[in-house]
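Why this split exists: single-chain examples teach little about how molecules sit against one another. For that reason, every record in the complexes split bundles all components of an assembly together and asks for one structure covering all of them. Below is a record exactly as it appears in the raw files.
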Amino acid sequence: MTIIKTSVGRRSFLKSSAMAGGGLVIGFNFLSSCQSKTEEEIMAMPKEWFDINAYLKIGDNGVVTIVSPNPEFGQNVRTSMPMLIAEELDVDWEKVIVEQAPYHPEKYGFQFTGGSRGIMSRWEPLRMAGASARHMLREAAAQQWQVPMEEISTASGVLHHELTGKSIPYGEIASEASNIPVPKEVVLKEIKDFKIIGTSRKNVDSKSIVTGEPMFGVDYYQEGMFYAMIEHPPAFGMTLKSVDKSSVINMPGIKDVLTIKSYKDGYEKRVFDTNAFSEIVAIVGNSTWEVMQAKKQLKIEWQAIEAYSETVTSFRGDKKTVNIPAGLESTAKHNKQMDILSAKQGKIVRKDGNPDLAFKNAAKVIERTYSAPFLAHNCMEPMNAFAHVTGDSVKIAAPLQIPGSILPTVAASLGVAVENIEMDITRMGGGFGRRAYAHYVVEAALISQQMEAPVKLIYSREDDMTHGIYRPTYRATYRAAIDANNNLTALHVKAGGIPESPLFADRFPAGALDNYLAEEWSIESNITIGAFRAPRSNFMAGAEQSFLDEIAETIGKDPIQFRLDLLQRAEDNPVGEKNDYDAARYAGVLKLVRDKSDWDVNQSNAHRGISAYFCHNTYAAHILDVTIENGKPVVQNVSCAIDCGVVVNPDAAKNMAEGAIIDGIGNALFGELSFKDGIPEKKNFDTYRMIRMSEAPKNIDVHFVENEIAPTGMGEPPFPPIFGALANAMYKATGTRNYDQPFKVTKDVLG
Amino acid sequence: MEVFTLNINGEKQEVNVDPNTPILWVLRDSLQMMGTKYGCGIAQCGACTIHVEGVAMRSCQLSVAAVKGKKITTIEGLSENASHPLQEAWIEHDVPQCGYCQAGQIMSAAALLKDKPNPSDADIDAAMNGNICRCGTYTRIKAAIKTAAKNG
Ligand code: FES
Ligand code: FES
């Protein structure tokens, strides 16, 4: 890879912000104090810090504080993002302290966690931040030693000038460096010279986590704050009618009962403002337990909603009208509605060649329909937020994925200016897309405004699970045309869901087939949905990869070879121009996982299933091995191959893949949320089954394709294909195919 | 409301609360000991696991009155400076993702190792099945328990 020259523009995040004449001592706030330090470590803290740019400050003893800009929800960016900076700064990782950035987009750019875009979007900017600082340190040394800057090298936080034999540690020249202008251009390291990127570094927060340090939103505490919980309608399709405050106001510890209207009349929602229950009741008191007791006693009347339409601005900025029907919906009725639309023609979204003719001339046609239910995110930390509104200034601390998306909403609902809102980004106890929809922050702020006091809002598990923002329920019907010579001649996919279609028309196997037809449909609903780890892909991958296995079996081909042949076609002579994948990289993960799991050599493929998928810019393939014991699937092994370009922190990336695999198997086997008369039929973990220790795979191996391509995401891509690998392996083990999630063992195999 | 003197991590703590209050909320709201987590409130997820007289208990289902005078250990008191073999193994195996479930996982594992210093896979499954991890760190948790058993 060649050296990248990157100019730092005028609207750069970099600012030389040292105070005139020297050091700046930065106090630790709630979040940075999460670093649990030993006495020895505290002794090693510098007396003075020098700000070099928004992302880093260097202490007089050479300790470096690096700011991690994006919200952390378990993807470990608080380790891997600072690694990017430390690499280019050329310091020892052991000397680095990590601090969480507050929300400050002018300084830290788009502070967003989602879409597996973190490392991808920060790959160059963060390295530039490190490289700029290194440049400034070299410049300062050059001035002090009166030598050309180009002759000054660095290693492990020390500047060297070979000709004169001079050297100086960063800490001793950081003060001077902080006054050097930010360079216009910086040279980034070549990949072969990396010392930190590509090596496994332990999670910087592990020690805080294993000792129980306060670090999550729910741990936020301020002297004198009240505790609040909400009551929302018990069913989708209902809203608040009235509340009888007197039913609980005299209970111990209860301060007030409020009604909350999350949006002002006429407020135009944006995509992350999704909220089925914008008129709710809040109970405020002195402790969570007392509020919980009142919540049980509180008398509220609910009423049915009327159908309405609203204009919602999408992520890209275009507006669309969404119709919300009235009525209490049920899963049984949903299934009937989906049966009807599955049988009708949908909206054609892609057509290549002449699929009709190919189906007409086919010697054999296979048709299969796949389905999946609504899913709840079930982040282990329930939704919560701290807010303190005083007059027109607002302080918020909350676990959320996209702070920038909720601030304008908070500002509009409170009637304050966005600039008056200060926000700390806390660690999230899981997100998975759920915390992109931070209506709970608006609620906390409105409660605090009414109470004129600091408030911590926390959802009960039941509130969390029944509040919506679910993964939609989906259907997909696949048809394959096979000619007399056992060639696949056409593929037809028709997919839909409530309330959105899961289809990606331009994904593989589009591009690999002369005749291809894709149709979609959707059904309106008042049940709210939202992004859920690899949205839409999390269903389509399982359906598509199951169907490809059925075709391979029908035409008598090895399932991996069958996929590779299709990909070869797509690489050599693609059909259509919009195909959104790189066929060679796709094939690469299939070949790697095949080799690593001895697929060809090992003849005991009897219980193994293959699956591969491309989404969120990363390729992933799994081979899953299952046996059936006492009528239950036991996953013996999963081998996984991933192509996400350069792997920044390999062991952490493996952890992500393992987690995605386990989470996927759990959702495939147990995930299900059904409705009756608008009411979610599961409210807590006694009925909503989550995968547990004894159900996790016995072993997982993760392998990465080695290349020098700029890194892409890891949080989502390994998740969708595991559904297909499990379905295909269970078929091999039982002889019966699962078409509907959650998967069940319907027939035991002997031996 | 009633005044209770509690023995938490070897220290005496006085609180004035409703006797039915689960010890989970006493720890979190009255004492600001945030290591013990709320996940479900119905003894289904294990996030709130503590030790009472050395036995793993779900603190969301245990009233303050029931633990009066008993020896309570929370994640904050499991060791000095993360030196419990499980905490060390957790760091070595880089177990946590979001980390929310992990204090509960460690407390359940610590009680297991006290009873069975060399647990089998089946022992680990049985002891840990009450602790949910949505992030899916189970394989690492199991490996870390085995390492801790070896080093303990
Ligand atoms: S909070 Fe106690 S077991 Fe879930
Ligand atoms: S690490 Fe996130 S729930 Fe276990």
